[in-house]
């Protein structure tokens, strides 16, 4: 099952990334000024999963990606994929697991692995 991962950007805004079961990013949200807005965005996405539209596109360099549209508003953008099959797998992962996925909050500036004192 995938996960929604909340993090803080360098500009002090928040974002979330939906990751696959293997931990690979599938899509990234736009930025949110406050963390609770980011959390509300995740809940809104989960509750409205049935109304999502995926708009597939291709970059000038030949990579595939999709935009997630909610109520005809651009909500998030996927990572770039090398093939259409991988792109479709990303969409399928969202449809299958997003509603049940947990939310992980890594937005605090605490280091996951504290620095070791040098010898």
The CATH architecture term is Roll
Task: Please give the domain count.
Answer: 1
End-to-end separation:
41 Å
Low-confidence stretches: none
What does the radius of gyration come to? 16 Å
CATH class: Mainly Beta
Percentage of residues in DSSP E strands: 25-35%
Tally of DSSP β-strands: 7
Order of helices and strands: EEEHEEEHE
> What is the helix fraction of residues, given as a range?
10-25%
Spatial strand arrangement across the major sheet = 4-5-6-3-2-1-7
CATH topology: PH-domain like
Mean pLDDT: 89
Shape: globular
Number of helices: 2
Main sheet? 7 strands, mixed
Structural class: alpha+beta
How would you describe what is shown here?
The structure is a single chain. The chain is built from two helices and seven strands. By secondary structure, the protein is α+β, with helices and mostly antiparallel strands. The chain has one domain: Roll (PH-domain like). A seven-stranded mixed beta sheet has the order 4-5-6-3-2-1-7. It comes from Flavobacterium luteum.
